[in-house]
């Protein structure tokens, strides 16, 4: 169901505002297949089948932010990862703006945003490869931010938080206002990325990153690796150092950081 818009996003965004949908990523993919333009943004108040990375569920009750952006650009598939860093930077910036000064807002590889060490946001990217080329036809970048509530995480799971749990009240808790700030930051990040490349995006991300240079556990679909998060490579891959092994480039997976000092 479509609702009257309570939000004016700057051009060239095309806003599709929904009360409820299965998943904004699924809806954005349907629209992309029908030819929806670059920077179509699908925003829903709730999702009935919100999805996270690696097939996980993303609990999507009313009160949090759920949206997906369609990007149409004739770029190589490998730059997909770079765009997820543009998005993570935009989320971290927007969250920092509404949190009390001094709040620790960090990013964790590949594109999670943490507040005081707990996950507040996740990003799910899905792409349609172009026929006969190592390029994508379109890319859907889905972002969820816990505003009013966050899921209760089972023992051993990565802790979650929300803006409300961090004591953010009043205007800062306005989902539309948060989306407005975030969408503008994302647009600025995409412009930087298009004009200057990944370098400034990578540096911005690294300034807020947790876990770089320290021990990490990387969980891949078929194996779990222990090592040192040695560096972030020029495309955003995690360079994993392991004693007695050549360096390994990790382009997708879950990262666990055993002890994270709370400093930037
Ligand atoms: C993660 O597992 O960390 C990624 C979570 C991504 C959730 C967002 S909410 C908006 C968009 N629609 C979805 O179904 N998923 C993404």
Order of helices and strands: EHEEHEEEEHHEEEEE
Q: How many H/I helices?
A: 4
Fold-level CATH name of the largest domain: BirA Bifunctional Protein, domain 2
Query: How many structural domains does the protein architecture include?
Result: 2
For the record, give the distance between the C-alpha atoms at the N and C termini, rounded to a whole number: 42 Å
The strand line-up of the biggest sheet is: 1-2-3-7-6-5-4
Quick check: average pLDDT?
91
Strand content: 25-35%
CATH class of the largest domain: Alpha Beta
Q: Supply the CATH architecture of the largest domain.
A: 2-Layer Sandwich
Categorize the overall geometry: globular
Low-confidence stretches: none
Characterize the biggest β-sheet: 7 strands, mixed
Helix content: 10-25%
Please tell me how large the radius of gyration is. 18 Å
Any overview of this molecule?
The chain is built from 4 helices and 12 strands. By secondary structure, it is of the alpha+beta class. It folds into 2 domains: 14-208, BirA Bifunctional Protein, domain 2 (2-Layer Sandwich); 215-256, SH3 type barrels (Roll), CATH 2.30.30. Strands 1-2-3-7-6-5-4 form a 7-stranded mixed beta sheet, sandwiched between helices. The protein has a 5-stranded antiparallel beta sheet with strand order 11-10-9-8-12, with no helix packed on it. Helix 2 crosses helix 4 (199-208). It is globular, with a radius of gyration of 18 Å. The site of biotin has 19 residues, from helix 1, strand 3, strand 6 and strand 7.
């Amino acid at each position: 169901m479509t609702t009257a818009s309570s939000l004016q996003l700057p051009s060239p965004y095309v806003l599709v505002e929904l009360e409820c949908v299965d998943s904004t990523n699924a809806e954005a993919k349907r629209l992309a297949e029908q030819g929806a333009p670059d920077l179509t943004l699908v925003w829903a108040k709730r999702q009935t089948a919100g999805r996270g990375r690696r097939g996980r569920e993303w609990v999507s009750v009313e009160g949090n932010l759920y949206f997906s952006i369609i990007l149409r650009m004739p770029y190589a598939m490998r730059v997909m990862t770079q765009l997820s860093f543009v998005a993570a930077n935009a989320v971290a910036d927007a969250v920092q703006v509404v949190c009390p000064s001094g709040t620790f807002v960090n990013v964790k590889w590949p594109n999670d945003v943490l507040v005081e060490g707990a996950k507040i946001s996740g990003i799910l990217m899905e792409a349609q490869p172009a026929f006969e080329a190592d390029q994508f036809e379109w890319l859907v970048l889905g972002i969820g931010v816990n505003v009013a509530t966050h899921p209760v995480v089972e023992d051993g799971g990565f802790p979650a938080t929300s803006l409300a749990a961090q004591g953010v009240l009043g205007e800062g808790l306005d989902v539309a206002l948060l989306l407005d700030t975030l969408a503008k930051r994302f647009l600025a990040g995409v412009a930087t990325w298009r004009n200057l490349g990944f370098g400034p995006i990578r540096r911005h991300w690294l300034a807020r990153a947790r876990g770089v240079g320290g021990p990490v556990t990387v969980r891949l679909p078929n194996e779990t690796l222990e090592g040192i998060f040695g560096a972030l490579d020029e495309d955003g891959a995690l360079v994993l150092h392991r004693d007695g092994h050549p360096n390994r480039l990790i382009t997708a997976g879950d990262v666990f950081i055993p002890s994270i000092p709370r400093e930037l």
